[in-house]
């Protein structure tokens, strides 16, 4: 079974985008390239929603697809022209991720956004949460976890200070477990 990981940057107050849906606030902090390389070695598939795809191609990395060499699925109902290495699908994200989890390969990276992550969290499909918490309070915007109807027990795997950033790695707690 392939591991499904939500790997994402989040503000201290739990937002992944500002009030306008933008992510330019991320620019202030330098990504830890060594840590990213460690993460990406275990990944061969990326799953994201339309908004994340749009932000990556228009705001974060215009003109340069940062996930070259990885199979990318973009969940959207928009009719889009084919793109090398990217599959646009109107299939439900939970159905897609269940199939990917059962298939062969390395890990699956849930890259974003909030709606995609929330659907997978509700369905119990995310096994690992790798969150980089940035030292900023946005006060509003796109909340990563939204309003989940049920709690999700997790187990802390590691917590590290990386410059001004806090990196948290958590896993779903075993069924019926306390998370410890």
Give the gist of this structure.
This protein is an alpha/beta fold. It has four helices and ten strands. The strands form two sheets. An eight-stranded mixed sheet has the order 5-4-3-6-1-7-10-9.
What key attributes describe this structure?
180 residues; alpha/beta; 8-stranded mixed sheet; two-stranded antiparallel ribbon; 10 strands; 21% helix
Question: Can you characterise this structure?
Answer:
By secondary structure, the chain is of the alpha/beta class. 21% of the residues lie in helices and 33% in strands. It has helices spanning 33-40, 50-60, 93-102, 114-122, and strands spanning 4-11, 15-17, 43-49, 71-75, 86-89, 107-112, 128-134, 142-143, 154-162, 165-172. The strands form 2 sheets. It has an 8-stranded mixed beta sheet with strand order 5-4-3-6-1-7-10-9. Strands 2-8 form a two-stranded antiparallel ribbon. It is globular, with a radius of gyration of 16 Å.
Give the arrangement of secondary structure elements.
Blueprint: E1 4-11, E2 15-17, H1 33-40, E3 43-49, H2 50-60, E4 71-75, E5 86-89, H3 93-102, E6 107-112, H4 114-122, E7 128-134, E8 142-143, E9 154-162, E10 165-172
Parallel strand pairs: 1-6, 1-7, 3-4, 3-6, 4-5
Antiparallel strand pairs: 2-8, 7-10, 9-10
Quote the average pLDDT: 93
Q: Counting H and I runs of at least 4 residues, what is the number of helices?
A: 4
Report strand order across the widest sheet. Answer: 5-4-3-6-1-7-10-9
Please provide the ordered H/E string of secondary-structure elements. Answer: EEHEHEEHEHEEEE
Spatial gap, N to C terminus:
23 Å
Q: State which percent range the strand residues make up.
A: 25-35%
Number of distinct beta strands: 10
Low confidence ranges: none
Roughly how much helix do the residues carry, as a percent range? 10-25%
């Amino acid at each position: 079974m392939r591991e499904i990981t939500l790997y994402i940057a989040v503000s201290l107050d739990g937002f992944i985008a500002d009030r306008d849906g933008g992510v330019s606030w991320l620019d202030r902090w330098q990504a830890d390239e060594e840590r990213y390389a460690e993460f990406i070695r275990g990944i061969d598939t990326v799953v994201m929603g339309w908004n994340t795809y749009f932000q990556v191609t228009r705001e974060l990395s215009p003109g340069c697809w940062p996930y070259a060499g990885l199979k990318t699925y973009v969940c959207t109902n928009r009719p889009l022209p084919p793109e090398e290495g990217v599959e646009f699908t109107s299939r439900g994200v939970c159905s897609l991720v269940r199939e990917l989890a059962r298939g062969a390969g390395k890990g699956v990276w849930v890259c974003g956004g909030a709606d995609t992550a929330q659907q997978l969290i509700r369905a119990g499909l995310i096994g690992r949460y790798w969150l980089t918490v940035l030292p900023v309070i946005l006060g509003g915007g796109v909340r990563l976890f939204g309003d989940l109807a049920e709690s999700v027990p997790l187990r802390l795997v590691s917590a590290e200070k990386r410059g001004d950033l806090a990196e948290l790695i958590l896993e779903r707690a075993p069924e019926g477990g306390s998370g410890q």
